Amino acid sequence: MRIITSDACVAEGAAILAAQVPLFATALEQTGPLPLRLRKDGFSALLDAIVCQQISVAAASAIWKRLQAAKLTGPRKIIWASDEALRGCGLSRPKIRYARALAEARLDYAALRGEPSEQVIATLIQVPGIGRWTAEIYAMFSLGHADVFANNDLALQEAAKILFGLDNRPNERQMREMAADWAPWRAVAARILWAYYRLAKQREGIK
């Protein structure tokens, strides 16, 4: 299992993908070097991913800043906080429920670091509010897994449609089939597509 730890790892994967897929090379000529995007693992990283669900990058960033200002990014603080305090930071009622479920799950984050991607995903999706997309983003950016892809991410699907000249945006199954050819660097392929989406749409595809 390859773990991305540095910009050099991302560059290595990008070079391999560019050699295999000419359109990735074309995209990289436009995007330039890809961001590393590594984050710390643990509770706050998953809480941040929950915050990001189904809202814009700008909205998610604003909510996260309010949570940080209120010191509400740790499990105990989430359990002790009132619903009013969490709503005041911008969390919806479902996301308040999911944040509390995550705090009460007491996940063994250290153990997850050594697990393969599918096991990480299988463990995380047992927590209410954590779907496959959230688990994939955590494996990709908090654990540095090189061969994981968020097949249901709308920005990735839209970027693939534009870059590969598809008539329609690929659905989750179609995206999974496409991404299978990009193993074992699917997380780098995702970085290429997010960067390309940013250029094509003039907006961020991932926080």
Structural summary, described in words:
The protein has helices at residues 7-20, 22-31, 43-52, 57-69, 75-80, 83-88, 93-105, 109-112, 117-124, 132-142, 154-163, 172-180, 186-201. The chain has two domains: 7-37 and 148-201, Endonuclease Iii, domain 2 (Orthogonal Bundle); 43-142, Orthogonal Bundle (Endonuclease III, domain 1), CATH 1.10.340. Helix 1 (7-20) crosses helix 2 and helix 2 crosses helix 13. 63% of the residues lie in helices and 0% in strands. The chain has 207 residues and is mainly alpha-helical. The model has no long low-confidence stretch (mean pLDDT 95).
Note the topology:
Layout: H1 7-20, H2 22-31, H3 43-52, H4 57-69, H5 75-80, H6 83-88, H7 93-105, H8 109-112, H9 117-124, H10 132-142, H11 154-163, H12 172-180, H13 186-201
